[in-house]
Fold this protein.
Amino acid sequence: MSDQVIDAVRELLPVLRERTQDTEDARRVSDESIKALQQTGFFKLLQPTRYGGLERHPNDFYRAVRAVSSACGSTGWVASVLGCHPWQLALFDDRAQQEVWGEDDDTRVSSSYAPMGRAKPTKDGFEFTGRWSFSSGCDHAGWVFVGGLVVDDEGNPTDFRTFLLPRADYRIDDVWDTIGLRGTGSNDIIVDSVVVPEYRTLSFMDTGKCQGPGQAVNTGPLYKLPFASVFSCSIAVPVVGMATGAYDAYVNHTRERVRASTGGRAAEDPFNQLRIAEAASKIDAAMLQIERNIDEAMRRATAGEKIPFPLRVQTRRDQVNATSAAIAAVDRLFESAGGGALKVGTPIQRFWRDAHAGRVHAINDPEKALAMYGRAQLGLKVTDAWV
Protein backbone atom coordinates (compact mmCIF):
# COMPACT_ATOMS: atom_id res chain seq x y z
CA MET A 1 0.00 0.00 0.00
CA SER A 2 2.87 2.42 0.79
CA ASP A 3 4.34 1.84 -2.68
CA GLN A 4 0.97 2.67 -4.23
CA VAL A 5 0.81 5.95 -2.31
CA ILE A 6 4.38 6.91 -3.23
CA ASP A 7 3.75 6.02 -6.88
CA ALA A 8 0.60 8.18 -6.88
CA VAL A 9 2.54 11.03 -5.27
CA ARG A 10 5.23 10.81 -7.95
CA GLU A 11 2.60 10.95 -10.69
CA LEU A 12 1.39 14.21 -9.14
CA LEU A 13 4.82 15.89 -9.17
CA PRO A 14 4.58 17.51 -12.63
CA VAL A 15 1.35 19.25 -11.60
CA LEU A 16 2.84 20.46 -8.33
CA ARG A 17 5.90 21.68 -10.22
CA GLU A 18 3.72 23.70 -12.60
CA ARG A 19 1.97 25.36 -9.66
CA THR A 20 5.09 26.53 -7.81
CA GLN A 21 4.93 30.17 -8.89
CA ASP A 22 1.18 30.37 -8.27
CA THR A 23 1.79 28.86 -4.82
CA GLU A 24 4.37 31.55 -4.05
CA ASP A 25 2.16 34.33 -5.37
CA ALA A 26 -0.83 33.15 -3.33
CA ARG A 27 1.35 32.65 -0.22
CA ARG A 28 -0.43 29.35 0.36
CA VAL A 29 -0.73 25.91 -1.17
CA SER A 30 -3.85 25.66 -3.31
CA ASP A 31 -6.91 23.70 -2.24
CA GLU A 32 -6.50 21.69 -5.44
CA SER A 33 -2.98 20.56 -4.48
CA ILE A 34 -4.05 19.55 -0.98
CA LYS A 35 -7.02 17.64 -2.37
CA ALA A 36 -4.80 15.89 -4.92
CA LEU A 37 -2.38 14.82 -2.16
CA GLN A 38 -5.31 13.65 -0.07
CA GLN A 39 -6.51 11.48 -2.94
CA THR A 40 -3.14 9.74 -3.16
CA GLY A 41 -3.52 8.62 0.46
CA PHE A 42 -0.52 10.67 1.54
CA PHE A 43 -2.14 12.17 4.65
CA LYS A 44 -3.19 8.69 5.83
CA LEU A 45 0.33 7.21 5.94
CA LEU A 46 0.84 7.83 9.69
CA GLN A 47 -2.85 7.79 10.68
CA PRO A 48 -4.20 4.87 12.76
CA THR A 49 -6.04 2.14 10.88
CA ARG A 50 -8.86 2.57 13.42
CA TYR A 51 -9.63 5.89 11.75
CA GLY A 52 -9.13 4.98 8.11
CA GLY A 53 -5.36 5.38 8.14
CA LEU A 54 -2.59 3.24 6.71
CA GLU A 55 -0.34 3.19 9.81
CA ARG A 56 2.82 2.75 7.78
CA HIS A 57 6.53 2.92 8.55
CA PRO A 58 7.66 6.56 8.97
CA ASN A 59 10.32 6.10 6.29
CA ASP A 60 7.53 5.53 3.75
CA PHE A 61 6.11 8.88 4.80
CA TYR A 62 9.52 10.58 4.56
CA ARG A 63 10.11 9.21 1.06
CA ALA A 64 6.80 10.68 -0.06
CA VAL A 65 7.65 13.99 1.63
CA ARG A 66 11.01 14.12 -0.11
CA ALA A 67 9.32 13.56 -3.47
CA VAL A 68 6.74 16.32 -2.95
CA SER A 69 9.41 18.74 -1.70
CA SER A 70 11.55 18.07 -4.76
CA ALA A 71 8.73 19.47 -6.92
CA CYS A 72 7.62 22.38 -4.71
CA GLY A 73 9.31 23.29 -1.44
CA SER A 74 6.28 25.02 0.05
CA THR A 75 3.93 22.17 -0.82
CA GLY A 76 6.39 19.63 0.58
CA TRP A 77 6.77 21.58 3.81
CA VAL A 78 3.02 21.87 4.36
CA ALA A 79 2.44 18.25 3.38
CA SER A 80 5.06 17.03 5.85
CA VAL A 81 3.77 19.08 8.77
CA LEU A 82 0.10 18.25 8.19
CA GLY A 83 0.94 14.65 7.38
CA CYS A 84 2.90 14.16 10.60
CA HIS A 85 0.10 15.36 12.87
CA PRO A 86 -2.11 12.26 12.55
CA TRP A 87 0.74 10.39 14.25
CA GLN A 88 0.64 12.75 17.23
CA LEU A 89 -3.15 12.85 17.41
CA ALA A 90 -3.03 9.06 17.79
CA LEU A 91 -1.30 9.63 21.16
CA PHE A 92 -4.20 11.70 22.51
CA ASP A 93 -7.12 10.35 24.49
CA ASP A 94 -9.46 8.50 22.12
CA ARG A 95 -12.20 11.05 22.86
CA ALA A 96 -10.04 13.67 21.16
CA GLN A 97 -9.40 11.39 18.18
CA GLN A 98 -13.12 10.74 17.88
CA GLU A 99 -13.88 14.47 17.86
CA VAL A 100 -11.42 15.11 15.04
CA TRP A 101 -11.89 12.00 12.89
CA GLY A 102 -15.25 10.60 13.97
CA GLU A 103 -17.27 12.24 11.20
CA ASP A 104 -14.50 12.82 8.66
CA ASP A 105 -11.25 10.87 8.82
CA ASP A 106 -9.71 13.28 6.26
CA THR A 107 -9.79 16.13 8.81
CA ARG A 108 -6.36 17.73 9.19
CA VAL A 109 -4.57 19.43 12.08
CA SER A 110 -2.00 22.25 11.86
CA SER A 111 0.35 23.26 14.67
CA SER A 112 2.56 25.73 16.46
CA TYR A 113 4.27 24.04 19.39
CA ALA A 114 6.10 26.94 21.04
CA PRO A 115 4.72 27.43 24.58
CA MET A 116 3.16 30.80 23.83
CA GLY A 117 -0.18 29.99 25.49
CA ARG A 118 -1.12 30.25 29.13
CA ALA A 119 -3.52 27.76 30.68
CA LYS A 120 -5.20 27.98 34.09
CA PRO A 121 -6.80 24.82 35.48
CA THR A 122 -10.59 24.90 35.84
CA LYS A 123 -13.15 22.28 36.82
CA ASP A 124 -13.75 21.60 33.12
CA GLY A 125 -10.13 21.54 32.00
CA PHE A 126 -8.06 24.65 31.25
CA GLU A 127 -8.87 28.27 30.49
CA PHE A 128 -6.54 28.97 27.61
CA THR A 129 -5.24 32.11 25.85
CA GLY A 130 -2.35 32.86 23.52
CA ARG A 131 -0.93 33.81 20.14
CA TRP A 132 1.34 31.59 18.04
CA SER A 133 3.32 32.16 14.86
CA PHE A 134 4.26 29.86 11.98
CA SER A 135 1.27 27.51 11.77
CA SER A 136 2.05 26.09 8.33
CA GLY A 137 -0.93 25.01 6.26
CA CYS A 138 -3.42 26.26 8.84
CA ASP A 139 -5.89 27.25 6.09
CA HIS A 140 -6.22 23.55 5.23
CA ALA A 141 -6.87 22.35 8.79
CA GLY A 142 -9.98 22.14 10.90
CA TRP A 143 -8.05 21.81 14.16
CA VAL A 144 -4.74 23.01 15.60
CA PHE A 145 -2.08 21.80 18.05
CA VAL A 146 -0.63 24.69 20.06
CA GLY A 147 1.84 24.73 22.93
CA GLY A 148 1.12 26.25 26.29
CA LEU A 149 2.30 26.45 29.87
CA VAL A 150 -0.05 25.44 32.65
CA VAL A 151 0.29 28.07 35.40
CA ASP A 152 -0.81 28.23 39.02
CA ASP A 153 -2.63 31.12 40.70
CA GLU A 154 0.65 33.04 41.01
CA GLY A 155 1.45 32.57 37.33
CA ASN A 156 4.22 30.01 37.92
CA PRO A 157 4.54 27.27 35.24
CA THR A 158 3.66 23.76 36.42
CA ASP A 159 3.50 21.87 33.11
CA PHE A 160 4.13 22.23 29.37
CA ARG A 161 1.34 20.77 27.24
CA THR A 162 0.11 20.52 23.68
CA PHE A 163 -3.48 21.74 23.38
CA LEU A 164 -5.85 20.57 20.64
CA LEU A 165 -8.44 23.14 19.57
CA PRO A 166 -11.21 23.10 16.92
CA ARG A 167 -11.41 25.81 14.27
CA ALA A 168 -14.25 27.56 16.12
CA ASP A 169 -11.95 28.24 19.09
CA TYR A 170 -9.24 30.21 17.26
CA ARG A 171 -8.75 32.70 14.47
CA ILE A 172 -6.04 32.97 11.84
CA ASP A 173 -4.16 36.23 11.31
CA ASP A 174 -2.78 36.43 7.76
CA VAL A 175 0.76 37.72 8.38
CA TRP A 176 2.92 35.35 6.28
CA ASP A 177 5.02 37.35 3.80
CA THR A 178 8.57 36.00 3.44
CA ILE A 179 11.40 35.48 0.96
CA GLY A 180 11.45 31.69 1.37
CA LEU A 181 8.73 29.06 1.75
CA ARG A 182 6.39 31.82 0.67
CA GLY A 183 3.64 29.38 -0.20
CA THR A 184 3.30 27.67 3.18
CA GLY A 185 0.67 30.07 4.58
CA SER A 186 2.40 29.83 7.97
CA ASN A 187 0.14 32.36 9.64
CA ASP A 188 -0.56 33.26 13.26
CA ILE A 189 -3.08 31.48 15.49
CA ILE A 190 -4.96 33.56 18.09
CA VAL A 191 -6.93 32.13 21.01
CA ASP A 192 -8.92 34.38 23.34
CA SER A 193 -9.89 32.69 26.60
CA VAL A 194 -11.41 29.36 25.62
CA VAL A 195 -11.91 26.27 27.76
CA VAL A 196 -10.00 23.19 26.63
CA PRO A 197 -10.97 19.86 28.24
CA GLU A 198 -8.05 17.98 29.74
CA TYR A 199 -8.49 15.02 27.37
CA ARG A 200 -7.65 17.39 24.50
CA THR A 201 -4.20 18.06 25.97
CA LEU A 202 -0.97 16.08 26.06
CA SER A 203 1.84 16.70 28.53
CA PHE A 204 5.33 17.04 27.08
CA MET A 205 6.60 15.10 30.10
CA ASP A 206 4.57 12.10 28.94
CA THR A 207 5.52 12.69 25.32
CA GLY A 208 9.19 12.65 26.29
CA LYS A 209 8.65 9.23 27.86
CA CYS A 210 7.06 7.92 24.63
CA GLN A 211 3.74 7.72 26.43
CA GLY A 212 0.24 8.92 25.65
CA PRO A 213 -3.31 7.84 26.51
CA GLY A 214 -3.97 7.03 22.86
CA GLN A 215 -1.61 4.07 23.09
CA ALA A 216 -4.41 2.21 24.88
CA VAL A 217 -6.28 1.99 21.57
CA ASN A 218 -3.47 2.51 19.04
CA THR A 219 -1.23 -0.32 20.11
CA GLY A 220 1.06 -0.62 17.07
CA PRO A 221 4.81 0.04 17.29
CA LEU A 222 4.45 3.22 15.21
CA TYR A 223 2.94 5.01 18.19
CA LYS A 224 5.72 4.03 20.58
CA LEU A 225 8.36 6.16 18.85
CA PRO A 226 9.71 9.38 20.40
CA PHE A 227 7.81 12.49 19.34
CA ALA A 228 11.05 14.45 18.96
CA SER A 229 12.38 11.87 16.50
CA VAL A 230 9.26 11.68 14.32
CA PHE A 231 8.54 15.41 14.25
CA SER A 232 12.12 16.63 13.86
CA CYS A 233 12.67 14.36 10.86
CA SER A 234 9.40 15.66 9.41
CA ILE A 235 10.98 19.13 9.48
CA ALA A 236 14.35 17.99 8.10
CA VAL A 237 13.21 15.79 5.22
CA PRO A 238 11.47 18.60 3.29
CA VAL A 239 14.79 20.46 3.21
CA VAL A 240 16.48 17.32 1.84
CA GLY A 241 13.69 17.17 -0.74
CA MET A 242 14.30 20.78 -1.72
CA ALA A 243 17.99 19.98 -2.17
CA THR A 244 16.93 17.06 -4.39
CA GLY A 245 14.81 19.44 -6.48
CA ALA A 246 17.69 21.91 -6.70
CA TYR A 247 20.00 19.11 -7.79
CA ASP A 248 17.64 17.95 -10.54
CA ALA A 249 17.13 21.55 -11.71
CA TYR A 250 20.87 22.21 -11.74
CA VAL A 251 21.66 19.07 -13.72
CA ASN A 252 18.99 19.88 -16.31
CA HIS A 253 20.09 23.54 -16.46
CA THR A 254 23.77 22.62 -16.86
CA ARG A 255 23.10 20.15 -19.66
CA GLU A 256 21.67 22.96 -21.80
CA ARG A 257 23.71 25.90 -20.57
CA VAL A 258 26.31 27.61 -22.76
CA ARG A 259 28.70 29.97 -20.98
CA ALA A 260 28.39 33.53 -22.28
CA SER A 261 32.03 34.28 -21.49
CA THR A 262 33.55 31.41 -23.46
CA GLY A 263 30.80 29.91 -25.59
CA GLY A 264 31.65 26.53 -24.10
CA ARG A 265 29.14 24.00 -22.82
CA ALA A 266 28.78 24.13 -19.04
CA ALA A 267 28.32 20.36 -19.02
CA GLU A 268 31.92 19.94 -20.16
CA ASP A 269 33.28 21.91 -17.21
CA PRO A 270 34.93 19.40 -14.83
CA PHE A 271 34.25 21.69 -11.86
CA ASN A 272 30.52 21.54 -12.57
CA GLN A 273 30.83 17.76 -12.76
CA LEU A 274 32.61 17.80 -9.40
CA ARG A 275 29.86 19.90 -7.81
CA ILE A 276 27.24 17.49 -9.08
CA ALA A 277 29.02 14.52 -7.52
CA GLU A 278 29.54 16.32 -4.22
CA ALA A 279 25.93 17.47 -3.99
CA ALA A 280 24.52 14.05 -4.86
CA SER A 281 26.66 12.42 -2.18
CA LYS A 282 25.62 14.89 0.51
CA ILE A 283 21.92 14.52 -0.30
CA ASP A 284 22.04 10.72 -0.37
CA ALA A 285 23.98 10.54 2.91
CA ALA A 286 21.52 12.92 4.60
CA MET A 287 18.54 10.74 3.75
CA LEU A 288 20.29 7.45 4.49
CA GLN A 289 21.18 8.54 8.02
CA ILE A 290 17.63 9.57 8.78
CA GLU A 291 16.23 6.31 7.43
CA ARG A 292 18.80 4.24 9.33
CA ASN A 293 17.86 5.78 12.68
CA ILE A 294 14.11 5.52 12.13
CA ASP A 295 14.51 1.92 10.97
CA GLU A 296 16.35 1.09 14.19
CA ALA A 297 13.74 2.86 16.33
CA MET A 298 10.92 0.96 14.59
CA ARG A 299 12.80 -2.32 14.99
CA ARG A 300 13.06 -1.80 18.72
CA ALA A 301 9.45 -0.61 19.06
CA THR A 302 8.25 -3.67 17.13
CA ALA A 303 10.25 -5.89 19.47
CA GLY A 304 8.60 -4.22 22.46
CA GLU A 305 11.85 -2.58 23.54
CA LYS A 306 12.27 0.91 24.92
CA ILE A 307 13.93 3.32 22.50
CA PRO A 308 17.42 3.86 24.01
CA PHE A 309 18.45 7.42 24.77
CA PRO A 310 21.66 7.20 22.69
CA LEU A 311 19.56 6.42 19.62
CA ARG A 312 17.29 9.36 20.37
CA VAL A 313 20.12 11.89 20.55
CA GLN A 314 21.75 10.28 17.51
CA THR A 315 18.49 10.78 15.60
CA ARG A 316 18.53 14.48 16.47
CA ARG A 317 22.23 14.69 15.55
CA ASP A 318 21.64 13.18 12.13
CA GLN A 319 18.44 15.15 11.58
CA VAL A 320 20.23 18.51 11.93
CA ASN A 321 23.21 17.19 9.99
CA ALA A 322 20.80 16.26 7.20
CA THR A 323 19.57 19.83 6.90
CA SER A 324 23.13 21.16 7.01
CA ALA A 325 24.20 18.73 4.28
CA ALA A 326 21.20 19.68 2.16
CA ILE A 327 21.97 23.38 2.51
CA ALA A 328 25.63 22.77 1.65
CA ALA A 329 24.58 20.87 -1.48
CA VAL A 330 22.16 23.59 -2.59
CA ASP A 331 24.76 26.32 -2.00
CA ARG A 332 27.44 24.40 -3.88
CA LEU A 333 25.18 24.10 -6.92
CA PHE A 334 23.65 27.57 -6.76
CA GLU A 335 26.97 29.39 -6.70
CA SER A 336 27.91 28.01 -10.13
CA ALA A 337 24.46 28.06 -11.76
CA GLY A 338 25.08 31.37 -13.51
CA GLY A 339 23.06 34.56 -13.77
CA GLY A 340 20.22 32.85 -15.59
CA ALA A 341 19.33 30.93 -12.45
CA LEU A 342 18.54 34.21 -10.66
CA LYS A 343 15.51 34.95 -12.76
CA VAL A 344 12.19 35.03 -10.90
CA GLY A 345 10.29 31.83 -11.59
CA THR A 346 13.34 29.62 -12.14
CA PRO A 347 13.48 26.56 -9.89
CA ILE A 348 17.09 26.78 -8.66
CA GLN A 349 16.71 30.17 -6.97
CA ARG A 350 13.38 29.11 -5.47
CA PHE A 351 14.81 25.92 -4.00
CA TRP A 352 17.77 27.93 -2.67
CA ARG A 353 15.41 30.36 -0.88
CA ASP A 354 13.07 27.64 0.35
CA ALA A 355 15.84 25.41 1.70
CA HIS A 356 17.39 28.28 3.64
CA ALA A 357 13.97 29.21 5.01
CA GLY A 358 13.41 25.64 6.19
CA ARG A 359 16.85 25.59 7.78
CA VAL A 360 15.96 28.43 10.19
CA HIS A 361 13.19 26.40 11.85
CA ALA A 362 14.17 25.96 15.50
CA ILE A 363 14.19 22.16 15.25
CA ASN A 364 16.85 22.42 12.51
CA ASP A 365 19.25 24.43 14.70
CA PRO A 366 22.44 22.35 14.41
CA GLU A 367 24.42 23.75 17.34
CA LYS A 368 21.75 22.94 19.93
CA ALA A 369 21.17 19.36 18.78
CA LEU A 370 24.86 18.64 18.28
CA ALA A 371 25.66 19.97 21.74
CA MET A 372 23.01 17.60 23.17
CA TYR A 373 24.72 14.68 21.47
CA GLY A 374 28.12 15.79 22.76
CA ARG A 375 26.79 16.13 26.32
CA ALA A 376 25.33 12.63 26.17
CA GLN A 377 28.59 11.17 24.86
CA LEU A 378 30.47 12.83 27.74
CA GLY A 379 28.11 11.38 30.33
CA LEU A 380 26.47 14.72 31.12
CA LYS A 381 22.74 15.07 31.71
CA VAL A 382 20.57 16.15 28.77
CA THR A 383 17.35 17.85 29.83
CA ASP A 384 16.03 19.19 26.50
CA ALA A 385 12.38 18.26 25.85
CA TRP A 386 13.07 17.85 22.13
CA VAL A 387 14.89 14.55 22.33
